[in-house]
Please model this.
Amino acid sequence: MLSLAAVSAGYGSFQALFDVSLEVAQGEAVGIIGPNGAGKTTLMRVISGLIPMREGAMTLEGRSVGGLPAHRMVEAGIAHVPENRRLFPRLSVEENLRIGAFIPQARAHFAERLDWVFSLFPRLEERRGQLAGTLSGGEQQMCAIARALMSKPKVLLMDEPSAGLAPLVVQQVFDLVHKIRAEGLTVLIVEQNVQQVLEVVDRAYLLEVGAIKLAGSSAELKDNSFIRQSYMGL
Amino acid sequence: MDIYLLEAVINGILLGGVLALLALGLNLIFGVVDVIWIAYADIVMCAMYAIYFLYTGLSVPLPLAFLIAIIGAASLGVLVHLLIIAPVLNSAPLNQLLATGGLLFFLQSFATLLFGTDFRNIGVRLPVLEFATIYVSFARLIAFAVGLIGAIALYGFLKWTYLGIAIRALAQDRDIVGLMGVDPRRIYLVVSAIGGGLAGLAACLLALQYDVHPFIGNTFGPVIFMICVLGGLGNMIGGFVASFIISQIIAIGGYYSSTELSYVLAFTFFIVLMFIRPRGLFAR
Model:
């Protein structure tokens, strides 16, 4: 579905990603784990076109999408739930969802998409007229995910969906990821919460200092002694 | 109540309509593109000249001249964005200010060079209406009504269309609108066109009341900036309300003293208010 080959990227003279290659198959959920500053968010931003890649190739369903700007990536089928949710705080929940369906092919099916995300997140329907900035943290995360789903993406990128949320709410967010997977979406998820993310993904990559250090199935990584020591505190 | 005072109040309200139109345009551009168009009032001047020459020179019917002026001003807005704003979009705010300030001098000098400093009037005399001994200029009434309709139309556009929601979203978080499939560069062009178009619309209304000359922008440009800052820069509703506050001060102040002094009063009020609420009356 989504494939990156030897991708490098950075900001100015600072290089944040070195030769990153990864593969996400149709219907699969893949995690990217790693410490702060490893380049996880940069990787997500490169995939969604917010940051141009310097070298390498990227394909979506076999079509080259490397170097497209963000708004074209959405049209190609990549939706990105950014770090810290980044809802438009002074737009209502419904307006946030509407802007999520901005691209023409999504606009045409706005009503049915809206029904669908409301069935996934009934809470948002109750809050549809409320300003997004006034939602609770968990509701904001729901709204951010729903907003991304409105564009009818093929691949959903999620950057630290559990960051900054209370432990109880974190569990709810991972339940949401389960729900989305059950809908057949392909998901690429960045998380610091290694233990919990390995419960919801099929496979994961370990990113350290901008390069992939380790890859494997969730079961393998859960048993890997390095991962257990460094990232799960076991 | 003294009927002359009432007349002044009514005239103040009517004046507020046109000022509101310009304040909305300037606020929209500032809120979205994040650049202050110092030369905004001079777009109005250009459009007024267009109306004058189309109507008196080429005998184009007035409504058509108005339409051409609005479209021309919208195109000028786009051109200003592409040629002057876009290259300095990521520069320091001072550089952006200097660039649009330079445009102001360019447009004023260019108009002086082309048309001289004569005051020109399209020569359309609209009647003065009398309502129970209160006299109201019909031109001002039209200006107020059109200003109000323009403001409501803009509100509806921003509130209920995809493009309008995208414009508001960009004003709140410009870095991630791309993730929504919105091309920011396209939004900047749309907003510049709307801002220019509103200046063109205001030019039509002003051409019915005032003479055009190369420096006409200076007579109301500072007032519009004051209104925008008073309402909180970028805050559309704040700017709209502030238009009527300032126009009332000008109108009532003019009734008790003179027109010149009323502007002094308005600016004094503004300066005092800036000490009390530095981020504007309606700062969030």
The beta strands of chain B are 128-131, 134-137.
